[in-house]
Amino acid sequence: MEQISVFDSRFAPYGQVLEGYDFAELCRVMEETTPCPEDGTVYVASVPELEALSVAAELRDRGFGGMPIQIGYCNGANTRLSCLEYHRTSELDIAVSDMVLLVARQPEIVGGVLDTSCVKAFFVPKGTAVELYATTLHYAPAAVGHGFRMGCVLPRGTNGDAPKITPAGKEDRLLWGANKWVIASANTNEAQQGAYVGIQGPDVDLMKG
């Protein structure tokens, strides 16, 4: 699978590279204090130590126009696509190590199905931060030959418990958390836990090229 640089113009429909931020302190704190599993991934939505850093206020004000934010992380080891999610807002991701983002676009969900041929792989070099637009489907990063660490910035409360709703539209079946809509592949942990299964097509795995 081709890995496209986030600096390539082909990334433009999915997001943009952030400019003018200094993430050196955040990267150092994450490297020193956050775990990186050798098998699987760990996601923590809100880490007070990261939210206390000087860059946090800048991310709140420049990145989200003053809205309350949470800064957490997604670390671990992964090479394949299991699910995709989207939010009503952009997400800011900071590559503390080299990583690959597997993404697609919300309009590519047709009739409740997303074909894996729509998924693209974008390489994000260490120290680079990107904005993923609200319509960009994404999930845990991937990496080949090493683990990854990624800082994750979202509006506060995102990825918390889903509200209790009575489904009234097709999108409602994808609601999986607060400000979190998920579409899963079959035979994944998320599918077994009740996530909507709608990803079809050949497996996406960076180990398979």
Automatic annotation (TrEMBL):
One Pfam family named in its UniProt record: DUF4867
InterPro entries the record matches: DUF4867 (IPR032358), RmlC_Cupin_sf (IPR011051), Ureidoglycolate_lyase_dom_sf (IPR024060)
A GO molecular-function annotation: ureidoglycolate hydrolase activity
Name of the featured protein: DUF4867 family protein
Organism field: Anaerotruncus colihominis
